[in-house]
Amino acid sequence: MLTLLINFSLSLELLAEETFGKIPNKNRKRPQNTALPFPTSNKRYLGKKVYFKMKRKVDQLTFLFPINLANYVNVDYIIYLLDHEGSGSIYQYLLSRGYATTFGSFVILEDSQTVPLAVYCQPTEKGIVDPYFIVETVFKYLKAACSDGVDEKLWESMKQINELNFRFQEKEEGDSLVSSILDRMGTSNVTQKYLGAPSQLSLDVEVENKILGFFHPDNFNLYVGSDSFSDTEATSNGPRLTEHEYFYSTPYLVTNFTEEQLEAWRNVETDPELHLPQPNTFVPNNFEIFDIEDDAGKLPTEIVSRDEADMSIWWLQDQEWMQPKLYTGCKIFPNQITRNARTWALENMISDIYGLVKNLALYEAWEADFNPIVDFDESWYIVVFGHSDPKKVEDVLNKMLDVLFNLDFTVDDALFKSNVVLPVQEHYDEDHEGSYHFADKYIDSIVFQEFVDWTDVKKAAGEISQLEVKEYMTNFLADISLSCSTFGNVGKEHAIRYSNIVKEKLVEHGSTIQNEDRRSLKDQNINQLPSGPSHVIRRSMKNPDEVNSATLVMFQIGREEADCGIEGSPPYTVKAFTGLLELIMGQSCFSYLRTEVTF
Question: How far apart are CA 527 and CA 448, in angstroms?
């Protein structure tokens, strides 16, 4: 049996037909997965805990569940349940308790008769010492997720999300597209006409429930990998590895679960913190391409001035790509910009505090292919880009603003230190920084009048309390100027509405909006360098483990104009030309340095 997919090129299709068409067709039937390669009745194959030594300093924990059904069944539903990272998920449960930093699942096609599903996580040191906590958590979740069979509303929500991702997937290279289609055909009982489109799927409750029935303690193996394991002696978190794999001599050891362990997992109690996700309410359903308005230009237009609404609103309606996508954002400028170590530390700390909650609170928006961002810098940027369904865009904007204005600045001090203070200090630790960041830092010393030393930022972060971060946020937003922009499949009324949502929420929480253009405030800290070569900086790395070097060349060209034209210049002119210059120079410089001079 030969499956041949040719992507877009007629000449390639003819060549393939001429080459492969000569292979005789023996009318072989597609293989049927009728025999379980790891029979549940035979403990020789299942109920194993396999320890192995990792070659990298990354620990790994993998469950392997074989699925014993005829043909290649579609396992999207169980993968969706396992990969979910929102409320009630295994990922959030383990992450919040310090046992793992990643969690997910994927199908392994080992041969034509095997469709095992792997569930993996990257455990922390705590998780590798106590992997049975992770095992118990997985079976608690599976008991809650599988006991009542497939949730039809949730299945439909998953189908909508998959169809959305398939319909609007990013452009990819031909070989990648063909490979993904073949993978899809290999893991789903579908016709060639289907080619992976989720809209062709229909719910088969009986099959879905049969799939869920394979996820129990009597049908899995556990693989635990760590570079801390040893083949010479037992360690504090694992036995001595007495066997070696044939091809790469990887040390490993196969052990059996005890009946007591299996019985405990068979009878786990469900936990209210582990539950199925709710159907996603952020999935867009309005894909209308709005009529081009009479005054829509080829460049961004200021449709509301500061004199009219105490904020500037810029708008550009897409007239080329005609896709139901948009970008909308508001830049927030304080009454003054202070560039020092304490401010830098505060910017990073509030970003980390927001990051701790936004991944969970906004997970469904991200899952529905929206990207809500709050960027904390010398000016703050509130951005949403994704689909242009007006109702869903408003829902995402309101949700992300509610998250921002309900940040908790009273968490446990130990949690604040580990999740906020230490990450900032590690980021600004010169003894562990990479070569590029080291070079970039010294460029700052020339570009900016107020150079900020990283050692001072690290020190400042250790002296700042949660209430001081809250006070910084309050003071930053007290007296502000707004510059908003909306581009894509949007009319003027959409741009105005989205900007007003941000403005009204800021005013509701105490901000005073000033009729001032403060976009040039950042310029006050920038040195105007003379034209021509001006500075060469050479420094030795402080990180003894960094074996790489870096050369960073920076040209001061002018304003980026990301806020749509200042002092009469056409919007994005400098940004567009420098982007084109990068495309021209990038590959040429890389090829020269790598191939000709082998630098």
Answer: 6
Identify any residues that bridge with 403 across adjacent strands, giving them in sequence order: none
Q: Are 439 and 550 in contact (CB under 8 A)?
A: yes
Bridge partners of 485? 314, 329
Contact of 360 with 399, CB cutoff 8 Å:
no
Residues 112-140: tens digit of each pLDDT: 445 678 999 999 989 999 999 999 999 99
The answer to whether the CB of 26 falls within 8 A of the CB of 103 is: no
Residues 226-270 have pLDDT tens digits of: 999 999 999 988 899 999 988 888 999 999 999 999 999 999 999
CA-nearest of 480, 509, 288 to 393 is 288
Q: What is the DSSP string of 172-206?
A: --HHHHHHHHHHHHHHS---TTTTT-GGG----HH
Q: For position 169, what pLDDT does the model report?
A: 74
Q: b/e per residue, 392-428, with b = 16+ CB within 10 A?
A: bbebbbebbbebbeebeeeeeeeebeeebbebbbebb
2, 23 Cβ separation under 8 angstroms:
yes
Q: State residue 8 phi and psi, 5-degree precision.
A: 75, -30
Which residues does residue 121 pair with via DSSP β-bridges, in sequence order? 61, 103
Judging by DSSP bridges, how do beta strands 512-513 and 312-317 pair with one another? unpaired
For 452-491, give the DSSP string.
--HHHHHHHHTT--HHHHHHHHHHHHHEEEEEEEEEES--
Q: d(Cα 205, Cα 221) in Å, to the nearest integer? A: 27
Contacts of 129 (CB under 8 A, 6+ apart): 236, 237
Distance CA 515, CA 310 (A): 5
Tokens in use for 529? 């360098």
How far is residue 393's CA from residue 401's CA, in Å, rounded to a whole number?
12
Percentages (nearest 5) of helix, strand, coil residues in the chain: 40, 15, 45
The answer to whether 104 touches 220, Cβ cutoff 8 Å, is no
Q: Which residue, among 155, 104, 167, 105, has the nearest Cα to 369 in the 3D structure?
A: 167
Helices (DSSP H) in 289-405: which residue ranges? 306-309, 341-361, 363-367, 390-405
Angle between helices 341-361 and 466-478 (to 10 degrees): 90
pLDDT of 458: 92
Q: What angle do CA 220, 221, 226 make, to 5 degrees?
A: 145
Give the C-alpha separation, 342 to 475, whole Å: 14
> What would the DSSP string read from start to end of 394-408?
HHHHHHHHHHHHT--
Q: Are strands 301-304 and 325-333 parallel, antiparallel or unpaired?
A: unpaired
Tokens read off for 413: 């001090």
Rounded Cα–Cα distance for residues 446 and 220 (Å): 59
Look at residues 549, 521, 516, 347 and name the one whose alpha carbon lies nearest to residue 438.
549
Predicted pLDDT of residue 38: 39
